[in-house]
Amino acid sequence: xxxxxxxxxxxxxxxxxxxxxxxxxxxxxxxxxxxxxxxxxxxxxxxxxxxxxxxxxxxxxxxxxxxxxxxxxxxxxxxxxxxxxxxxxxxxxxxxxxxxxxxxxxxxxxxxxxxxxxxxxxxxxxxxxxxxxxxxxxxxxxxxxxxxxxxxxxxxxxxxxxxxxxxxxxxxxxxx
Length: 176
Prior knowledge:
This protein has an eight-stranded mixed beta sheet, with helices on both faces. The two termini are 26 Å apart. It is of the alpha+beta class. Helices cover 31% and strands 37% of the residues.
């Protein structure tokens, strides 16, 4: 199952995408707000292999974003079922540095929200981020999420504690 926008293709992660995913996850701009140094290849492959092995029937999706006109891979969007009882999902994204600031993250994330609400029956979708990651927070705002709050000193990176922000959107808000 693939998703499309005006400028982008979002394809379910395939084995052939693993080198791209490893490269993306090792970029400083991807891990900077999450950890002190780049994760190793084995950690990344193990993390993303669960998407390959489980398939999309488990409530875990990883979409690889590529440019529709050139087919070049530029990022990824993940969507994971967090709480089946209330139909709560978590969304996340990352883009290659040279494709940031073009609206691609918002365009891709918005399309995944559409998919989650219509095809997966999501009631609530949340996103978490390092409070200092203003680019990610801006994406959350652009796709219609509302800030729920700031969780103080919950992320340890190196020797420093960071706050996290939480945004969400409900199906009735999104469709209204």
